[in-house]
Amino acid sequence: MALVKMKKLLEQAETKGVGIGAFSVGNMEMIMGAVQAAEELQTPIILQIAEVRLKNSPLAFVGPMMVSAAQKAKVDIAVHLDHGLTIETVKAALNMGFTSVMLDASTRPFEDNISKTQEVVRLARTFGATVEAELGLVGGSEDGSSNHGIKCTDPDDARVFAEQTGIDALAIAIGNAHGNYPAAPRLQFEVLKAINKAVDIPLVLHGGSGITDEDFQKAISLGIRKINIATASFNSLTEYARRYFTDNDSYNYFDLDKAMIEGTYENVKRHMKVFHHAFTGAV
């Protein structure tokens, strides 16, 4: 198929009432595993990387691989910069061919978040790219280095924010957190309902690793259209690599490479099936 704008995938998800998996990657094997799962299930995905990961996976190296993989895939794939920290990184991703970007100003005061996001929207529009932003505080950080606490998104603020910024998708805080959950999260579905009623753009759930399948499906039924998965994929890759060394007496790079691809593939495939399964509980 093709490298596509994330907005296209979000619109399709809205029409079908499903969620689109946004899978964070850090190397070639993760990209290959995610694309393999998407092609097998004949279902679009989003490949993404957060700026905090660029110290381990430089954008100049991993970015072109992500874009090339999407261009050559047999399904539609969007390529997204997740949690950008600087406008310079956003520009670099757009120039590289990313079809979606996010500058995370959620820890800034409300008006600052709006103004920073407006700047990104103006820039992205010149590339025809999709823009995601975040409002409220999602717990933890992508690399586990900080935790600003959790502050649920205010529905009225969400309406104003969406109207004033012109963003295409809004990441919200409803009790979700990045990284490994020490205990099962308690998502605030009433808050999600109110936000979904207040805005008319797709909603995004960060911190997807560790949320139950039922809660994923319930969130999707209430308006979540993009779900970020990072930690679960990194953990799965690491576990498959560990098994490779445990189960074999001799080792080589090429079999290790296969194990890392398989670890990512299995996790991506499992989540994709959950995101496209209808919720059967009460809302």
Number of DSSP helical runs: 10
Order of helices and strands: HEHEHEHEHEHEHEHEHH
Arrangement of strands in the largest sheet: 1-2-3-4-5-6-7-8
Strand content: 5-15%
Contiguous low-pLDDT stretches (5 residues minimum) are 139-147
The average pLDDT value, as a whole number, equals 92
Structural class designation = alpha/beta
Could you tell me the number of beta strands? 8
Detailed description of the structure:
- The protein has 283 residues and is α/β, with parallel strands linked by helices.
- Helices cover 48% and strands 15% of the residues.
- The protein has 10 helices and 8 strands.
- It has helices spanning 6-16, 28-41, 59-72, 87-96, 110-125, 155-165, 189-198, 213-221, 231-247, 253-275; strands at residues 20-24, 45-50, 77-84, 100-103, 130-135, 169-172, 203-205, 224-229.
- An 8-stranded parallel β-barrel has the order 1-2-3-4-5-6-7-8, surrounded by 9 helices.
- It is globular and about 60 Å long.
- 50% of the residues are buried.
